[in-house]
Amino acid sequence: MSPTPSAPTRDRLRIAIQKKGRLADPARALLTACGLSWRESRDKLFCFGESLPVDLLLVRDDDIPGLIADGVCDLGIVGFNELDEQAKARRQIGLADAYQPLRALPFGECRLMLGIPEEWEWSGVQMLQGKRIATSYPAILTAWLAERGIAAEVVELSGSVEIAPRLGTADLIADLVSSGATLRANQLKPVEVLMDSTAVLAGPVEELTDIRAGLIAMLLRRLDGITATREQKLLMFDAAEQALPAISALLPAGSELIRLPGNGVTLRLQAMCQTGLSWQQLEEIERAGGSNLMVLAVEKSLA
Ligand code: ATP
Ligand code: ZN
């Protein structure tokens, strides 16, 4: 696929997601939860959007920032680590920013960390002076070292970074860590966090002006709705008027209490709670005068 120099007007939105790997399934699941569906199977490079004019391009995660920069894709789901690495690499060679994270997504959590040999005693960043550090994130590491005034050699490796110290090609590493098991298996220990990362929905710096702008706005609204409702619960209960102050005090902060039409003696109420309710909270509400308690999960909300 050849890059498009000046993004042409299109009437369909194109989203790049990882074809295979850690972000592939959660990215698809999230877009499906946003009401999108596609005709093609997951093995194909291109999936034609059926429910909406939104197509998918299945690629390597490393290619996603570039596809957005070139205007081949309008949005992408990629790790912030990858997006930021490529953004910093662009800046280091004097290129203007071409993409930006639009939303953080609730998956792909990891940290870019320094890992040192287990037998080393970590005494702070100054001990990195003159050391060789292997990483797949040279631009982030270079910027991080420069901010701290450390002169160290950045050894760029595209994979198997964690074996570099044992091979003697580096003294220590900067690599992605989620549980730390890979580091331990290679006799390394994590000592310093360079970056906390999650998957993000990324888009171009320059806003689109054609029909795709409306599609992006709709997608963001649906995404925000999903994120906002993850924890939201609707509590329904009956109570007498005089019990309301005590019950209100027991509801999670920010809960919105609404009176429903009732028989006049006992009030029928509902509370939209921004967080879940524990058994203990529900029992306390009962003791304070609430009855017929029912907790409902909120599936969708455009509030
Ligand atoms: P591709 O073939 O698409 O280039 P990859 O090997 O670069 O795949 P994955 O290992 O699937 O990519 O990781 C994709 C993203 O998942 C990472 O960039 C990062 O944002 C996130 N991630 C979460 N936890 C980890 C982890 N423990 N190690 C590596 N990446 C992680
Ligand atoms: Zn990759």
UniProtKB/TrEMBL annotation:
Catalyzes the condensation of ATP and 5-phosphoribose 1-diphosphate to form N'-(5'-phosphoribosyl)-ATP (PR-ATP). Has a crucial role in the pathway because the rate of histidine biosynthesis seems to be controlled primarily by regulation of HisG enzymatic activity. One of its GO terms (biological process) is L-histidine biosynthetic process. The keyword Magnesium applies. It catalyses: 1-(5-phospho-beta-D-ribosyl)-ATP + diphosphate = 5-phospho-alpha-D-ribose 1-diphosphate + ATP. This is ATP phosphoribosyltransferase. Feedback inhibited by histidine. Its main location: cytoplasm. It comes from the Bacteria. InterPro entries: ATP-PRT_HisG_long (IPR020621), ATP_PRibTrfase_cat (IPR013820), ATP_PRibTrfase_CS (IPR018198), ATP_PRibTrfase_HisG (IPR001348), HisG_C (IPR013115), N-reg_PII/ATP_PRibTrfase_C (IPR015867). Keywords: Amino-acid biosynthesis, ATP-binding, Cytoplasm, Glycosyltransferase, Histidine biosynthesis, Magnesium, Metal-binding, Nucleotide-binding, Transferase. The keyword Nucleotide-binding applies. It is an enzyme of class 2 (transferase). It comes from Stenotrophomonas koreensis. Belongs to the ATP phosphoribosyltransferase family. Long subfamily. Its cofactor is Mg(2+). GO terms for molecular function: ATP binding; ATP phosphoribosyltransferase activity; magnesium ion binding. GO terms for cellular component: cytoplasm.
